[in-house]
Queue: 3 jobs
Job 1
Amino acid sequence: MNQFTEFLNTFHTFEWRDAIDILLMAYLIYQAIKLVRETRAAQLVKGIAVLLVFYAVAQAVPLRTMRFLTENVLSIGFIAMVVVFQPELRRALEQVGRSRIGKFQVFTSGLAEQDSQGKWEKLVHDLVEEAGVLSQEKIGALMVIERDTKLGEIIKTGTVIDSAPSPELIGNIFFPNSPLHDGAMIIRDGRLHAAGCFLPLSDNREISRELGTRHRAALGMSETSDAIVVVVSEETGLITLCRNGKLTRGVSLSRLREYLNAELAPSPESEPTNRLFDRRRGKNA
C-alpha cells in the first residue's frame, strides 16, 4: 500500500519538463537501437548483454572472482564501446550533420541560387550525355558528386583538374589507358574537381558477386558520405546509382537525368527522388 501511495505521489510532482525529458530519451534510445540493428554492432550488443547477466548473477550469489572481473570490464566499458563502435558513431554524427538542422542558409541570395541552379543543370546535362556514350561503348566510369560531406581526403589520392564540365572532358578522363581512367572522378560545386581518386571499398557481404571493384567502391563511398555516385559498368554497360549505402542498377538515361536534376538543381515542381531507391521497385528502376 505504501508503494502504491509513493507511485501516486510521483505523478503529483510530474511537470511538462519531465515529459520533454522522457520523450527526448525515448527518441535517443530508439535511434540507438535503430543504428545498432542496421550494423554489425548488434552482435557486440548481445555480448554486452550476456556480460551484464553474468554481473547480476555474480552480485546475487555472490561470486567474488566473477564479480571482480565483470566490475573491472564494465568500468572501462564506455571507452571500449567508443573504440569498437567508432565507424557506427562516425556515421551517426555525419547523418546528424546532413540533417535539415545543419542546412540553414540565412545569407544566401536569390541571384546566387539561380547561378548555382544553372551551374548544376549544365553539369547534369553533360554528365548524362556522356554517361550514355560510355554506356553504349561499355567504357567503365566512376563519378562521385560531392554533397555536404567534404571529400578532401579522397581528392588527395587523385589529381586535381578543377575544370568546367563538358562531355568531351569526361570521356577523355575515362578513355581506356588514359592516365586518369583507373579511379573515380570527384565533382565539387558543379565542376570536375579531381580524377583518378581511390575510394573506400564497402565491406557489405550482401553485394552480388556479379559486381566488381568499381561498384564496391561506389557503394563504400555512399556508405561513408552523402555523395551521389554514378557508375557505368565496363562489362554490361549498365548505369548504376549509389546513395546512402543503397545501390540501384540499370537506371535509364531519362531517369538518371530526372534524379540528378531533382537532387542537384531542384525546381518547385520536382518530385521526391527517394522512390528510386525503394527496394520494392526491384533492381531496375
Note: Residues 102-112, 279-285 have pLDDT under 50 and may be disordered.
Job 2
Amino acid sequence: MKISIVGSGYVGLVSGACFAQLGNKVICVDNNKKKVAALKKGHIPIYEPGLSELIKSNVLKKRLHFTDSIREGVENSEIIFIAVGTPPSENGEADLTGIENVAANIAKNMKSYRLIVEKSTVPVETGEWVKHTIKSYIKKDVKFDVASNPEFLREGQAIDDFMHPDRIVVGLESQTARQKMELLYKPLNAPIVFTDIKSAELIKHASNSFLATKISFINAVSCICDKVGADVTEVARGMGLDKRIGPGFLSAGIGYGGSCFPKDLEAFVKISEKLGYNFKLLKAVKEINENQKDEFVQKIKNSLWIIKDKNIGVLGISFKPDTDDIRSAPAIDIIKSLEAEGAKVKVYDPQAMDKTKGIFKTVNYCKDPYAVCKGAECLLILTEWDEFKELDFLKIKKLMRRPIIIDGRNIYDSRRLEKIGFTYISVGRGGLLRK
C-alpha cells in the first residue's frame, strides 16, 4: 500500500520503518528541513535499538522515502497518518496546534479520496476537529475518511512492539476505512479492535494512565515496606502471580518518566475536568510519582548527612534503558536536587549524556561507570541499563571514597554487595535508614 506519515519523530520514524518492512511504500514527511536532510544521509535523530538498520535497509529497497513536502506525501498516498507531537501546554492540556496545521495542509493538497489517520496521542473528540478542519480547508468536493489508530510503542522495544502487538486499535466510521486498515495490518496477524473514533482515542489515554497507576501503587507500597522492613520485590512477586493483576509494571523505583505516561496522565486529568469529572485517582497517581523522587533524595541525605560538597556518582540518566530519551526522566529532577544542595555530581549514561549537556553545565560527564565511582562518597543507580548489572564491584569498592550504593531501580542482590562491604540501600527493601 502507499502510505505517508506526517511527523518524523519517534512514532513517525518507527511506524514508517516498520510499515516499509511489511512491504508498503512509505513517505515520511517532516517540516524540519535539516532533519529530513539528515535522514536522507542516514543520520537517525533518536536512539532506538534496530531502528537505524531498519531505516537504511528499506531506503535501499526504495520502500522508504523522506521529504519536507506535505504535498508530495498527500499526492502519493492512499493512507495518511498524522504523527506530529502533542506536547503539554502550561495547564497540562495537549497542544494540538500541530494536528490542526497538518489537517489543514492535507485538505489543501487532496485531489481524490484519502484516509486520514490520527497516530498521535490526542484527547477524545480530536477526530471530530480533524474532520471539521479538513472540511473547512478542502478545495472541492473530495471524499475522505478520518480514523484513529493510537500507538502502543515502548521505547527500547518499539520495533518488536510494532511487529508483534498485543492488539491493534482502530477507530473509524466507514466500511471503506475498515477495509483499508484491515489490509494494511493483515501481515501482522494480530487482533484488531475496531471501534468508534472516540473510544479509540480514549483507549490510549486510559491504557497509559492505568499502567502509571500500577507503577505508583507499587511505589506507594514500597514506602510501607521501607518503614516496616519488608521486601517490595517479594510483595510484587506475590501480587503478580495473581492472573487478575499480572507482574508487569510492578517494579518499585524512583517513578515513571518519558514522553508518554506523565503527559498522557496529565492530559487525561484535564480532559476529564473539561467534561465535568474530577479524576482524583489520577491526581493521586501523579502525586505519588513526584513524591517517590523526594523519598529517594531523602535516602541520600540519611546516608551522607550533609550533601554539600560531597562527590556523588550517578549511573543512568534516561528515563528507562535502551533509549536516549530524558523527557520527564526522574534522574533529571534528582540531579537538580543534588546540585541545589551543593553536591559535586559525576554521571554516566550509555546514550543520554549528549542530550543532558544542555541541561546540566556543571555536572562532570564520565567516559564509563568506573570513572563515575572514582572518589565518590555515594553511588546512585537511576536507570537499569544492563551494562550496570555486570560491573566489577570489588574494583568499584576500591575506587569509591565511601562504599555506599543507593539503588533507585533495585537491580542488585543486597546480600552480595553487603558481603563485599558496601552499604546498600534500595527502594522498598528496608533501606530508608530513617533516624
Note: The chain is about 45% helix and 15% strand.
Job 3
Amino acid sequence: MLTLREAAERLRSFDNVLILTHIRPDGDTVGSAAALCAGLRALGKTAYLLPNPGLTDTTAPYFRPYAAWAGFQPEKVVSVDIATTDLFPENAKPYADRVDLAIDHHPSFEGFGRENYVRPSAAATGEIIYDILAALGPVTAEMALPLYVAVSTDCGCFAYNNTTAYTHAVAAALLRTGIGFQTVNKTFFRTKTRKRLALEAAMLSGVEYYDRERAAVLSVPLALIDRVQATETDAEDLSALGGQIEGVDCAVTMRELRPDVWKFSLRTGPRVNATKVCALLGGGGHAAAAGCTVEAPFEEAKRRMLEAIAQVVPDFIL
C-alpha cells in the first residue's frame, strides 16, 4: 500500500491519464475524478475521465468538462472511489487489469490496482484527493468545487456519522478558494423534484418494519419508477430516506434495476455493521453505509437480506 506522498509522486510522474468512476456514479466518485483531472491538467498533464453512462442531471455538470474523447488511448489508468472491479461500468471493464493506481476509502476495497492508496478513515474519497492535490501544488477553485461536491455528498452535508473534524477542515479549506458552495448545497440537499417526492411518498407508504421496528425495508420496484416516470436524477440517493425514520437504526432500501435484480443499500447505526451484512451477499462498503445486488424475486431477495442481517446482529429479530 502506498503512502500519501508516494501516491502523489506516482501521479506527478503519470501522463496521458484516464480516470475511472463507478457505476451509478455519486457525487464522491464524480467530484473526486473531476478534481483529480483538473489537478493533473494544472501540472501540464493530459488527463480525461472515461465517460460514464449513469450520470444524473446533478452530477453531469461536474463530469462533462473532463470527459474523454472517443479513441483516447491512455498510458496510465487511475480509479477513484471504486472498491471492486465489479463496480466498473461496462466501458471500464477492459481496464480491469490495467489500473495503475487505485484511490479509495472503502474498508471493503479489494486491492485490484497495480498500486493502491486507500484510507478507510476518510469520510469521502474527496478528502484523499484533496490531500493528494495539496501535496502536488495549490488547490485551485476549479479543483475545489468538485471536491466540495465529493466531500459534502458522501457525508450527507456533514450530518452523517462518518463526518470528522478533518472533514470540516477540508471543507473549510475548499471554501477559502471562493467556490459557490451555496449552489451545491441547494442542488444536492435542498431541492427535490415532484417526481422525487412521489417516489418518497410511495416508499414510505409501503415501508415494512422488522426487529421491533428498529429495521425498515423500503422498496423501489421498476413499476413504481415507471408509474411516476422518474429519471435517475429523481431516484438519486433514495437510500437516505429510511434512516430519517425515528427509531430506525437499520434502513434497507431495495431498488429493482432489472426484473428480479435488486440493488440493496443499507444505512445503519453502530448496532449493525452494514459492510459485514452486505459482504455475506457479495457486496461491501462502510460500517454505516454499504450495498450489494441480489438476483431473485422480491420476497426471496428481501428474505436473504434479513437473514444476512440476523447473522451479523445477535439480537436481530426477524
Note: The mean pLDDT is 97.
